[in-house]
Design goal:
The protein is of the alpha/beta class. The protein has 2 domains: 3-42, no CATH class; 54-249, 2-enoyl-CoA Hydratase, Chain A, domain 1 (Alpha-Beta Complex), CATH 3.90.226.10. 39% of the residues lie in helices and 20% in strands. The protein has 8 helices and 10 strands. Helix 2 (78-90) runs parallel beside helix 3 (108-119). The longest helix is centred in the last third of the chain and has 20 residues, at 170-189. The radius of gyration is 25 Å and the shape is globular.
């Protein structure tokens, strides 16, 4: 037998094969694989890393609730968001949360559940509407300690609607009315808009073009009291840092 081709049972390699890579090159190989994965998933070789006391949570696409949406839909699943919010509340190094919104809306109860949890977090929170914060995205946007909207972003306010087969009985319409009241009460409680003004925007028939509802662009959302300020990522982060400093000062203040 040719001694250059005998089999090594423990390694699964012929003696003529190349030796495994040097262990000294392992970190370089891992870094190369990491950079390739980052390029494939994010379109860049590296993502800036910085130790921060702020966690950014992104809510995009359609809010998926109890029904799984088609694969071609870009969704935010509420069962992914709720555990994150619990973890953020408990994490000792996270002092503030930035909620970035670009959503068309979605499941009403799932969106309200997310909004309720965000509003009940003990740490400072700031929301930023980029692109759009439509439908059930409105309660999520106003659930934070402070809310911002980009100058070109929009928000759609419309009556509660459901799709699919329904029973046309009085109880169904009463249920829709109660669900709508839940949304209205939450938005009014967590923003400067009045109940009458919000309902007027919701049912303004003259602007219910194509049954999409009343659309507010940037500053209009601020002027009606729905959102606090017009601004982008810079002002939003600055506001969150101020809230964090105020929270620190409150914790450090001596008891009377």
């Amino acid at each position: 037998m040719d001694h250059h081709s005998f089999y090594l049972p423990n390694t699964g390699m012929d003696s003529g094969e190349d030796a495994p890579p040097d262990k000294d090159n392992a970190p370089a190989e891992r870094d190369k694989r990491r950079r390739a994965r980052t390029l494939r998933e994010f379109g860049t070789l590296s993502i800036p890393e910085a130790k921060s006391n702020i966690h950014a949570m992104v809510i995009v696409g359609q809010i998926e609730g109890h029904v799984v949406l088609p694969n071609q839909n870009k969704t935010t699943k509420y069962e992914h968001i709720l555990p994150q919010l619990v973890a953020l509340e408990q994490h000792p190094d996270i002092e503030g949360v930035l909620i970035i919104l670009n959503t068309v809306g979605g499941d009403v109860e799932a969106g309200l559940a997310m909004a309720e949890m965000i509003s009940s977090i003990s740490k400072p929170t700031v929301s930023l509407v980029l692109g759009g914060g439509h439908s059930i995205g409105v309660p999520i946007a106003v659930s934070c300690s402070r809310s911002f909207i980009a100058e070109t972003a929009s928000m759609t306010i419309h009556p509660i609607r459901i799709t699919g087969q329904i029973l046309t009985v009085p109880q169904t319409f009463e249920y829709l009315e109660k669900m709508q009241d839940r949304v209205v009460r939450f938005v009014v409680k967590h923003s400067r808009i009045t109940n009458e003004r919000f309902r007027e925007l919701m049912f303004r028939t003259g602007e219910l073009a194509r049954d999409i509802g009343t659309v507010l662009i940037g500053r209009e959302a601020v002027e009606c009291g729905l959102i606090d300020e017009v601004g982008g990522i810079g002002p939003a982060l600055q506001s969150l840092q101020r809230l964090i400093e105020e929270a620190r000062a409150g914790r450090e203040a001596p008891l009377q």
